[in-house]
Amino acid sequence: MRNPEDFGPPEKKQKLNPIQFNFNSQNGPKKNSFEELRDARRALPIFSAKHKIVSEIKKFPSAIVIGETGSGKTTQIPQYLLEAGVHQNAIIAITQPRRVAAISVSQRVALEKNTTIGSLVGYCVRFEDVTSAGTKLKFMTDGMLLRESILDPTLTRYSIIILDEAHERTINTDVLFGVVKAAQRRRLKTGQKLLKIIVMSATMDVDHFSEYFNKAPVLYLEGRQYPIQVMHTKEPQSDYLFASLITLFQIHKEAPAGDDILIFLTGQEEIESAVKTIKDLARDLKDVPQLVVLPLYAALPSQTQIKVFAKTPPGHRKVVVATNIAETSITIHGIKYVIDSGMVKAKVYNPHSGLDLLKVVTASKAQVLQRTGRAGREAPGVCYRLFTESEFQNMSTNTVPEIQRCNLASVVLQLMALGISDVLTFDFMDKPAPESINAALEELVILGALERQVNSDILKLTPLGKQMAAFPLDPRFSKVILLAKDYDCLEEILSIIAMLSAESVLVSVSNKRKECLESHQKFMSSEGDHIMLLNIYRAYKSVNGNKSWCFDNFINSTNMHNAQEIRKQLREICERNNMTFTSCGRDTTTIRKCLAAGFFMNAAELSKEGDFLTMTTRTKVSIHPSSALFQCKPACVVFTELVKTTKCYMRTLSVVDPDWLYEAAPSYFKRKKTSAIS
Ligand code: CDP
Ligand code: MG
Q1: Which of 271, 325, 367, 634 has CA atoms 20 to 30 A from the CA of 399?
Q2: d(CA 188, CA 190)
Q3: Distance CA 400, CA 277 (A)
Q4: Of 595, 451, 463, 584, which Cα lies nearest the Cα of 528?
Q5: Residue nearest (by alpha carbon) to ligand 1 atom 19
Q6: Ligand 1 pocket check for 106: Cβ under 6 Å
Q7: Which pLDDT value is given to residue 522?
Q8: ipTM of this predicted complex?
């Protein structure tokens, strides 16, 4: 066990704000009575600033609102504007980078407004639109608003656009900044009604934002923040996972029941295994409160995510093991201790290979400070950082915006569909590297979405590209769908892509590992994971989505249902594109041919030494243990996801014939080969 002395002295003390607030949104219908919710709204730190906020927003075309997490920005400001009529009877859009936040916040606001979700207050996320003609407060993911702007570049239906969680700087948020700013300018020029822009954030580089939004005024909200004791380790930790467990049990031995703990780790598998270890270790402990251990990450089904909001039963202690999702966008009650690994899983892009890679990297100072803040929302708290003070000082100040570290093909395609042909000169707040834009343009040319105009370097959208932009998917997936009709397997490809777009359907029960594996074995295919997903989908359909079948086969029925819904929507887009629905029946080879034709950039082959190397950049990759092909050594595969943990893993892959790849993109492989030689 670690000694308390291993941690250095507190780093900073923060101002004590004596307002007490004990409201919990999950206390059942009685506690959620309208009066009680109204009182809770009035007790929020933002309430006293209501009139000032409304009058400032009325005065200026754009405004920036800064306030600590939990101060009431997301739930209250839209309501204030609505109540004051600032929206002029049009819709107020509130964008969120994460779908969980869009759903949970809109539900909360509907509750506060005493209405059912989908009427006055609604939400719209990919594959789910819960709004109606009467919706005035529309919570949506930034990706959804971006898609709407393709059809309506001046965003005519909206009078106010609130860009929330701006500090997250996801690709979509960054592109939206430019699109919304252009819409505001265009409406001004053409004499249409003003479009108000409000940018909200917990922390951010205020001057940079204000400058970009035409010197918009900045409104600071006072947050509720109790003092937090910050501890650093004395020595750097080689294993943050191990360190987090030791720290957790050290706190657990001493702290009274009800003092809940939030641990920041990096991803799904790591979190699930930590949750299991914690439960196992806690079982043998005596004279300590009982633990309620809960995972929290984006891919978790919403019903499971919601559990973290529940009040901890008396005599228990809640431990939430989360990704950076718990940094700002979600409010968890009762947290007194934060354990911060100082790590985060982020997308990293290699413009040479054109591949995005999920990789565990050091968090930024801004993220670490946000995490610390989560310990002091309701009472004084403690934050244990599993890194030294000097490691903290060496962290970068802000997170690098996603747009500067991801594959831009999807965004560039959307911008082209928006009519912005010169992407290199688009008004980005922080410009992506020209190499990344050029790599994306090149990828889209290879995919056939863009083409060079005769005798010029100007790129324009092809009819295929236009069709591709209609799908809310990575261009490679859209391409596969469009190819599928030529390969006579559109129905099958839709099922596979819907399954890939939904959350994982395979359930793994820790004390029934063997039974799980045996059940899943039935669906496995020597052709790979995509065909396995298809087998599961087909089996599910053949029993008409029977729930007990799902249960018996360790298949998550909610996620299966979602996959079915997603499929329906993708099929509707195909219908609108006048595509013919074809099926290959049992001949699954054509499916893999089709996948190869769309994902030829994600191919790897087995080398003589027995390693897999990507076909173009010769990067070493391995088959993920969760893959149906883990024990196999196929000569050539295409993969639809790459993750980096201890190694670079291909997850979800299919066996293909290298000839299919060459046939699909002869010029691509020829060019890559030449450049590899030179
Ligand atoms: O956006 P910001 O972080 O400033 O705060 P918010 O999301 O508007 O949340 C304000 C308060 O509403 C939180 O402190 C919670 O007490 C409550 N809330 C809740 O109970 N359940 C939710 N789903 C969202 C907010
Ligand atoms: Mg918020």
Answers
A1: 271
A2: 6
A3: 33
A4: 595
A5: 25
A6: no
A7: 94
A8: 0.98
Residue type, 112: E
SS3 content of the chain, % helix, strand, coil (to 5): 45, 20, 40
Which residue is closest in CA terms to ligand 1's atom 24?
A: 105
Q: Which residues of the chain have pLDDT under 50?
A: 1-30, 675-678
Q: Is 73 in the pocket of ligand 1 (CB under 6 A)?
A: yes
Q: Which H or E run includes 136?
A: none
Q: For the segment 3-26, what is each residue's pLDDT rounded down to a tens digit? A: 333 343 333 323 222 212 222 333
For ligand 1, say whether the CB of 370 is within 6 Å of any of its atoms.
no
Q: Helices (DSSP H) in 543-665: which residue ranges? A: 547-552, 557-576, 589-598, 658-664
For residues 378 and 450, give the distance between their C-alpha atoms in angstroms, rounded to a whole number: 53
- Amino acid (1-letter code) at residue 307: K
Strands laid side by side in the 316-322 sheet = 228-232, 381-385, 335-340, 260-264, 316-322, 290-296
The region that residue 239 occupies, defined by phi over 0 for left and psi between -120 and 50 for alpha, beta otherwise, is beta
CA distance 107 to 312: 21
Q: Torsion-angle region of residue 523: left (phi > 0), alpha (psi -120 to 50) or beta?
A: alpha
Distances 477 to 501, 528, 572 between C-alpha atoms, Å: 10, 17, 16
* Helix or strand run (H / E) with residue 129: strand 128-130
Per-residue pLDDT at 268: 83
Residues near 662 by beta carbon (within 8 Å), at least 6 away in sequence: 669
